[in-house]
Amino acid sequence: MSDLRFLENLLDGALMEWVPLESVAELKRGRSITKKKVTPGTIPVIAGGRSPAYFHGESNRDGQTIVVAGSGAYAGFVTWWDQPIFVSDAFSVKPFSGVLPRYCFHWLQSLQGQLHELKSGGGIPHVYPRDVAPFKIPIPCPEDPQKSLAIQAEIVRILDAFTKLTAELTAELKLRKKQYNHYRNQLLSHPSGNMAEKPLGYVGKVRMCKRVMKNQTSTSGDIPFFKIGTFGKEPNAFIPRELFEEYKAKYSYPRVGEVLISASGTIGRSVIFNGEEAYFQDSNIVWLENDESKVLNKYLFYFYQIAKWHVSDGGVIKRLYNDNIKKTVIAVPYPDDPEKSLEEQARIVAILDKFDTLTTSLREGLPREIKLRQQQYEYYRDLLLSFPKAEEVA
């Protein structure tokens, strides 16, 4: 069935009217409350974020509430609450009797991008009820309230099925991440009869790239140059190929599979070097020179996620110095039997790889499935709410 036919069957000849939101719903600002004035309780306080700012002992809205964040980076973000809440730096949208709350919620969700662009004012961005009130919401069959609510209910049923599935998958992902963390910690940080603690210096020497001066970089060029701020992200600096080839030939450079570590900023963040041409900021991004005769690189990668780094914080910026890296303790299975040790490490890595794929992969894991379900929801939401306006019909 074509999309157009699907809509025609749903409407069954019903007329459609687009009306300002303020004519079919109450838009009501919340009441600001600071953390100091919050009383003990379990009522979520909804302000400018995507989740509760804190919890309070009283509510100012009942369940089935649509909330639009009123300030901050997420101003304009739409959420739905099935429980009593306290609306603070935000405002609620409560439809009148002719519009189902969930129908209004899905419609506002379809405008999420536009609402986010409404942010105004200097300093902290704000979105106010007056900004949203003029938006026109489609009301099917307005002359027949009973039929209108029936059509709205069918649209809600279809869209809620997608949001429910996405919520179930998200809950499953959260559970799998918890399970993954448990097994990773058990497998990598609990020396037993076959495990022994060794300093990382046992694995290999700490290495880093040759220092690159600021005047040697540019905003475009041949070879990406990763600084601590762009490590693991997109580069914003580049160096000439001639410099890259010279430094790569003369000085330390990571081998494919070796694990790069951030030594400042987010301490211990790690990236497996895939061999793509790139250069890395000295002292801030380092790695262990590892021939994998004692410890597998992938085993190191997983260990870095739970490593108890000895960070030096005497200066303004916390740093991870080479000596501290070498002294950091890692649990190595069967260290006196290299062959058996590597075999056991490979077994542990295989287990963690499965969890990692399930919890992080956008190609085959749960994140991919969640993304697909979200795209499916957005497709049908836009389809079901794309009723033609009167002028388009004419």
Overview of the molecule:
By secondary structure, this protein is of the alpha+beta class. The protein has two domains: 3-166 and 371-393, Alpha-Beta Complex (Adenine-n6-DNA-methyltransferase TaqI, Chain A, domain 2); 195-333, Adenine-n6-DNA-methyltransferase TaqI, Chain A, domain 2. It is built from eleven helices and 18 strands. A four-stranded antiparallel beta sheet has the order 2-8-5-6, covered by helices on one side. Strands 11-17-14-15 form a four-stranded antiparallel beta sheet. A three-stranded mixed beta sheet has the order 4-3-7, with no helix packed on it. α5 runs antiparallel to α9 and α5 runs antiparallel to α10 (366-384).
Task: Summarize the entry for a quick read.
36% of the residues lie in helices and 18% in strands. The chain has 394 residues and is of the alpha+beta class.
Shape: elongated
Name of the CATH homologous superfamily of the largest domain: DNA methylase specificity domains
By DSSP, the count of extended strands is 18
CATH class of the largest domain: Alpha Beta
**Helix content, binned percent:** 25-40%
> What's the story with the biggest beta sheet?
4 strands, antiparallel
